[in-house]
Design a protein that fits this description.
It is built from 22 helices and 14 strands. With about 650 residues, it is mainly alpha-helical. It has a two-stranded antiparallel sheet. A hairpin with an 8-residue loop joins strand 10 and strand 11 (about 500).
Length: about 650
């Protein structure tokens, strides 16, 4: 039996190398056996890190599902004809070219920009089945490692679940002597998948640490707050419209006659989610997590006023390493001298494509500058009064595209230099607008530019009046939020002088859980109450805004926060603002079933061909509206995989 197990491992190892050759070998090439992989603590630790290395990489925008698959959050300069990205999986999906012949970003089989999550699960199973072998491991440490891998196994199932809906549950690896029919698995009903993910996470909790005490040595290792946050997000997904009472899936039945998604709405799922979110928040608090607040007094080298400090609550709340507002972030190389884990925190590279062409730079030099914020994002953020631009009676919505000059009487002198002309759309907006977006003639705060935060930042350069030749930002807005304050590019420099500050991309922040709590409470109770408002108001307070009820009292629709349906929309907009560009919007719009509202809009921008102010500040369409079908909420399995396993049912609609 032991020899058969060794043979099975060798075959499994060979398949991994063939299909996923980017992964690091964890045992010597000449002896790929279980005896060597789990011979001692050191080798077992390497296999532990192998289980981590399958984590999807959020710093690769072309292969990570949540960034560039739509035009509603990010926009690529040149649109679909961009030579840099026209063949990237994300671009093809945005064009509507997802397919079942050769699926794009295939996280099922690990092709076309995806990583096989089933390979990841297999490695987790190998670890769990063999970690009892080494004798030189402290039992407390062994228990922690087991807990970490159980969580990772749960997370890989959850990642698949988000993309594909019902999936096979690979609770243990198959043996070499299993019959061909025995290994032809079925997709299990969605609710059973959720139950299994929750079961694995619950089993892991007692042996996971509350906190990481050494960020340098253990950056990225799993903690109790991380595990509970993922559990909360999984149960929220189960309660959301995509899988809770979705009649679209009423005919999705497999060859056994099993209904894969229940089409009966169950309001108690929101209570289960609410309880899980509360537990995740409580444990996060006990671990020291809190909403990030920038301490301008501690950072005394910069002369920051209160307005700029509030912006930093948003920007540095993302880019500040190991800050208390981030529960889980992308991984840095760890494993000490062995460099076992590849560096996934390549935010310097991500920022390279986001960094705008600045006024102080020589045209044509510097970062690539071809990924920007969509125009819709510029209209999403609130006014300075904390309400939507179309609901604020003190904000001139009908004139938002007109030209306006910044004056000393404005409340915007810290965001737009006095005397500069830009669109009225850019005036009198909430702090997160100025923290998240760069725009023409607005300040773009960088630590390497100036110590005077009131007058001399580098400023944004557009094609306005022919200043940038053929280089421009078609939408007129860049993603300032993801560009670290410490990232720099010297004046008149070549691209070699670009220095991207390499922070960890946030996967889950405390603000995410706070807003999930408000959402779950609003959905569970018959009408909004204090439990609905408490955490959304904490998020708003942290960015200098009044609470929801207070803000809307002066709006054109003061009763919105007291209506369940309207409060749902408020919470959704708050999530899209607070978590903008963090890879959450894509998943949220799917689970809310709002793709037809957000993913069908034609991309827009200022007129880049304009050579005068009046010509430039005209809103034009940059492309055509995109068609959308509900089948796009979930991704297909390849026809090849269906032929190999005829027990698999294709994803609904494909």
């Amino acid at each position: 039996m032991k020899n058969l197990s060794k043979i099975a491992f060798i075959l499994s190892f060979m398949i991994t190398i063939i299909s996923c050759n980017q992964f690091l070998d964890v045992v010597p090439d000449d002896t790929p056996t279980l005896d060597h992989a789990f011979a001692n603590r050191a080798m077992s630790e390497r296999y532990l890190f192998t289980c981590y290395k399958h984590l999807p990489d959020p710093t690769n925008p072309y292969h990570y599902p949540a960034h560039l698959n739509t035009n509603d959050e990010f926009y690529l300069i040149g649109g679909e004809s961009n030579q840099h990205t026209q063949s990237a999986p994300s671009t093809e999906i945005r064009r509507g070219n997802q397919n079942s012949n050769s699926p794009l970003m295939d996280y099922w089989s690990g092709k076309n920009g995806g990583r096989s999550m089933f390979n990841a699960i297999r490695d987790c199973n190998i670890f769990l089945e063999n970690i009892n072998i080494p004798k030189d491991i402290d039992e407390t440490e062994r228990s922690r490692w087991i807990a970490e891998v159980k969580f990772l196994k749960a997370y890989y199932h959850f990642f698949l679940l988000q993309l594909y809906g019902p999936i096979p549950l690979i609770k243990e690896n198959f043996e070499l002597y299993d019959s061909p029919e025995a290994i032809k698995v079925y997709r299990e009903p969605f609710d059973e998948c959720i139950d299994y993910i929750v079961e694995l996470i619950d089993e892991s909790l007692s042996d996971l640490p509350l906190t990481i005490t050494n960020n340098i040595q253990e950056d990225g290792r799993i903690t109790q707050p991380i595990a509970l946050a993922v559990k909360a997000k999984a149960l929220t997904l189960a309660a959301s419209p995509l899988f809770n009472g979705n009649s679209d899936y009423s005919g999705w039945v497999d060859k056994r006659g099993v209904q894969l998604v229940s089409n009966s709405y169950d309001n108690e799922k929101w209570k289960i989610a609410l309880d899980a979110i509360e537990e995740a928040i409580d444990v996060a608090h006990s671990a020291g997590h809190q909403l990030y607040k920038y301490n301008k007094d501690a950072d005394g080298q910069f002369n920051m006023n209160e307005s700029i400090s509030i912006l930093m609550n948003t920007r540095k709340g993302i880019t500040e390493k190991w800050n208390s507002g981030v529960i889980w972030s992308s991984m840095e190389t760890f494993g000490n001298k062995n460099n076992i884990i590849p560096t996934y925190a390549a935010m310097a590279n991500f920022q390279w494509i986001l960094f705008p062409i600045m006024y102080s730079q020589d045209v044509g030099k510097g970062p690539t500058s071809y990924c920007y914020a969509s125009f819709d994002m510029a209209e999403l953020f609130y006014t300075r009064n904390g309400i939507p631009i179309y609901e604020d009676p003190s904000w001139d919505y009908s004139s938002r595209y007109n030209i306006r000059y910044s004056t000393t009487e404005d409340n915007n002198e810290h965001y737009i230099p006095v005397g500069e002309a830009t669109a009225a759309l850019n005036f009198d907006r909430e702090p997160r607008f100025y923290a998240s977006l760069g725009f023409d003639r607005g300040y773009f705060e960088l630590s390497t530019t100036s110590n005077n935060f009131g007058s001399s930042f580098s400023r944004y350069l557009t094609l306005r009046a022919g200043e940038a030749g053929n280089l421009s930002n078609e939408t007129g807005y860049s993603v300032k939020k993801l560009i670290a304050f410490e990232t720099s590019l010297s004046r008149g420099s070549s691209s070699n002088n670009y220095q991207g500050y390499d922070y960890r991309f946030p996967l889950i922040r405390l603000a995410d859980l706070y807003l999930l709590h408000s959402e779950a409470a609003n959905e569970y109770y018959d009408s909004p109450n204090d439990e609905v408002y408490v955490y959304i108001d904490k998020v708003r307070e942290n960015v200098g805004l009044p609470g929801v009820v207070n803000s809307w009292s002066s709006s054109l629709n003061p009763n919105r926060p007291f209506d369940k349906v309207e409060m749902r929309k408020i919470i959704q907009q708050e999530r899209m603002i607070e978590l903008a560009f963090e890879g959450q919007r894509f998943w949220d719009i799917r689970r809310w079933k709002l793709g037809d509202e957000y993913w069908t809009r034609a991309p827009r921008g200022w007129n880049q061909k304009g050579r005068t102010l009046d010509e430039y500040y005209q809103v034009i369409n940059l492309g055509k509206p995109r068609s959308f079908s509900p089948v796009e909420y979930l991704w297909p399995i390849s026809i090849y995989d269906l032929r190999i396993n005829n027990n698999l049912e294709q994803t609904f609609g494909w």
